[in-house]
Structure formats: structure tokens, C-alpha cells
């Protein structure tokens, strides 16, 4: 229904961002909300996909059309819902994703949260040879973020990863690794996702 929403980025939470357009605040779920930290109170254009359920109307957002295309291909696979697709996109390794699908690397695919062996096999069956995607073009202006206090940034990162479906046991190990460091929530998320995919 909505191809994109252009408006003012007014709020960032662990699960979503809020974009105000024409006096309406749209809550949009994105893969890594904190990558938009440098754009608070600035105009943004977010590509969107709407999911309508019995109990909710949800908007999922993307920094580019390429990222949206990856999401749409992923949710076309039986067993992959929007939240799981966002978690896969958040890893930001689409080359690795395509290689895993083309080489039938089930071990790699099952490292994503909520992706078991059966779902990984279904991904290969449904997407092999059809997933010729280029690296997602992330809006570089969305990547400008300001540093917050280390504990707050790390807590925000862990909360965002929990929203993507990662287990508490996984997050505990990751959080322990970053203790005593100082970085942005966005960078913590990026590094943690890379660690969990090894």
C-alpha cells in the first residue's frame, strides 16, 4: 500500500523508528533502528512494506529499495516472517547470504535467529538461482550517529537485537565481550551480528 514515507524522523526505539508525515507519526519497524541516530529531527525517506494482521497493521521500513527487495524475497519463503527477515537483513551480509543459498550452506543459514534446518532448506529451494542481489545500498547519511554513554548504547543495542529474535544466552556472551568498551548502539549491533554469524 505504501511504497515509501517521506517525513521527519522524530523518534528511535529498539524496535522501530517514528517518521512524522503530514501530521501523522508512522511507527516503522527497521532492521537496525540506531543506524538512523544521526538523522533525528531531520527529513528522511523510508521505503516501506505493510503487513496486515487480524490484530495489527504493521509497517516495515528500509533505507533503500534494494534492501526492501531482499526483505520481500525472504518473506516469500515459507517459514520466514517479517521479523526473521529483518534479523537476516540486519546482519548486512547479503553477499554471504547469496553465497550460502547458492552453495546450499545450511550451517550458515541456521545461524540466523528462528531459522532452523527445515527453513534453511526451504530458503535454498525457493531462492536458489533467483536471488541475484547486489549489496544493499545503505544510505550513508543514515550511518552518521553520535556516541552515547557506553552502558546506554550497549543496552540499546542488546534490546534491539532481542527484538530481532536473538536469544538471551547469545546476547549475554556478546554483552560480556563488549564490557568496558565505548561505542555507538549502531556499531555494537553491527559488530555483535558479525560475531554471532561466525
- Class by helix and strand content? alpha+beta
Rounded radius of gyration (Å): 16 Å
What do we call the CATH topology of the largest domain? DNA polymerase, domain 1
Supply the CATH class of the largest domain.
Answer: Mainly Alpha
Q: N- to C-terminal separation?
A: 37 Å
Helix content: 40-55%
Order of helices and strands: EEEEEHHHHHHHH
Give the CA-based shape: globular
Spatial sequence of strands, sheet with the most strands:
1-2-3-5-4
CATH superfamily of the largest domain: 5' to 3' exonuclease, C-terminal subdomain
Q: Which CATH architecture of the largest domain?
A: Orthogonal Bundle
Biggest sheet details:
5 strands, mixed, barrel
> In DSSP terms, counting alpha (H) and pi (I) runs of 4 or more, how many helices?
8
Please report the total strand number as a whole number.
5
Unreliable parts? 132-150
Mean pLDDT: 84
| Strand-residue proportion | 15-25%
Count of the separate structural domains: 3
What does this structure look like?
- With 198 residues, the chain is of the alpha+beta class.
- 41% of the residues lie in helices and 19% in strands.
- The protein has 3 domains: 4-62, Beta Barrel (OB fold (Dihydrolipoamide Acetyltransferase, E2P)); 65-127, 5' to 3' exonuclease, C-terminal subdomain (DNA polymerase, domain 1); 146-196, Helicase, Ruva Protein, domain 3, CATH 1.10.8.
- It has helices spanning 65-75, 82-90, 94-102, 106-109, 117-127, 150-163, 168-178, 185-196; strands spanning 4-12, 16-21, 24-29, 43-52, 57-62.
- Helix 1 packs across helix 2, helix 6 runs antiparallel to helix 7 and helix 6 crosses helix 8.
- It is globular.
- The chain starts with a strand and ends with a helix.
- This is Holliday junction branch migration complex subunit RuvA.
- InterPro entries: DNA_helicase_Holl-junc_RuvA_I (IPR013849), Hlx-hairpin-Hlx_DNA-bd_motif (IPR003583), NA-bd_OB-fold (IPR012340), RuvA (IPR000085), RuvA_2-like (IPR010994), RuvA_C (IPR011114), RuvA_C_sf (IPR036267).
- Residues 149-198 are annotated as: Domain III.
Amino acid at each position: 500500500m505504501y511504497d515509501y514515507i517521506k517525513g521527519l524522523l522524530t523518534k528511535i526505539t529498539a524496535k522501530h523508528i517514528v517518521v512524522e508525515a503530514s501530521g501523522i507519526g508512522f511507527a516503522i519497524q527497521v532492521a537496525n533502528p540506531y543506524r538512523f541516530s544521526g538523522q533525528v529531527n531531520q527529513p528522511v525517506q523510508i521505503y516501506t512494506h505493510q503487513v496486515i494482521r487480524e490484530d495489527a497493521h504493521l509497517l516495515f521500513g528500509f533505507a533503500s529499495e534494494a534492501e526492501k527487495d531482499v526483505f520481500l524475497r525472504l518473506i516469500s519463503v515459507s517459514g520466514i516472517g517479517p521479523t526473521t527477515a529483518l534479523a537476516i537483513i540486519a546482519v548486512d551480509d547479503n553477499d554471504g547470504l547469496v553465497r550460502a543459498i547458492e552453495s546450499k550452506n545450511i550451517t550458515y543459514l541456521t545461524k540466523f535467529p528462528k531459522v532452523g534446518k527445515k527453513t534453511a532448506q526451504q530458503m535454498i529451494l525457493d531462492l536458489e538461482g533467483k536471488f541475484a542481489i547486489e549489496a544493499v545500498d545503505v544510505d550513508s547519511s543514515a550511518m552518521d550517529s553520535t556516541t552515547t554513554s557506553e552502558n546506554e548504547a550497549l543496552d540499546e543495542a542488546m534490546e534491539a537485537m532481542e527484538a530481532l529474535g536473538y536469544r538471551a544466552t547469545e546476547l549475554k556472551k556478546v554483552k560480556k565481550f563488549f564490557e568496558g568498551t565505548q561505542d555507538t548502539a549502531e556499531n555494537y549491533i553491527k559488530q555483535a551480528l558479525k560475531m554471532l554469524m561466525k
